[in-house]
Amino acid sequence: MGVIEELEAITGKVAASVGPAVVGVGHGSGMVVADGTVLTNAHNLHGTEAKVAFADGRRAAGRVGGVDVDGDLAVIAVDTGGVTPVVWTGEVAAVPGTVVVSVANPGGRGVRATMGQVSAVGRAFRGPRGRRIRGSLEHTAPMVKGSSGGPVVRPDGRLVGINTNRLGEGFYLALPADAELRARVDALVRGESATRPHLGVALAPSRAARHLRQAVGLPPRDGLLVRVVEDGSPAARAGILVGDLLVAVGGRPLARIDDLHEVLDGTDAEAALAVQLVRGVEEVELTVTLSATETPEDGPAPG
Q: How much is the pLDDT for 1?
């Protein structure tokens, strides 16, 4: 058997063995990880119910269980019809050069399987609410739009990653399916949605804030511009307004959105933080009492 035939055989074998466990969720994909449980990306979901399309054409209504918006993960409780789950051992290492097959069922429009290689590890990207997700795998298996939530597997069918972020260059970033991720998924299956301290704002990054202030004749200043304040949020209760420029939180200057996230992630829920802001040309200091949320709003755009 020649090299081309071997590659065809590997891709075909994976499509036949793993494909039945790959489903369509919304406009994206997902996979059966246990009897009655589908794992997908949080950005594929809207609301507490989800329509799941199986590879054999069957469609079923599912209920969204645990959700980790910032980690871009969610589980759906649904009748999986006896489908054999994807093999997830938590022990499959991937390094640059590792051969992988990516499988998807975009929006339930049919199973796709393509081959590629891991091109990089330890990559980072922003989740749905702006927080940085680190440690992802970059691979070269070409996939169409809607492949997020589908599995990346070794030629023997063992799971190595979960497609999550499609890059403009045609590459995909996948969350590595290691023991740490498995523990997070197990918590979501138990209904333990991830919660993090939040302000309840949507922000424009510092460079955009400088341009906007300059456009209205205000002096330039580093900081994060408040675009939206969520009703009833800690920010709203403290008196933060749309148009305020956040310049420091908890004594830390805010040059990047990541600065805010790092402060919040290192702070206990219900704690109080000093917030320094500029309102027009006036310097203002407020105290914000945080709260935890399952759907944090802090990020470059409103949720």
A: 65
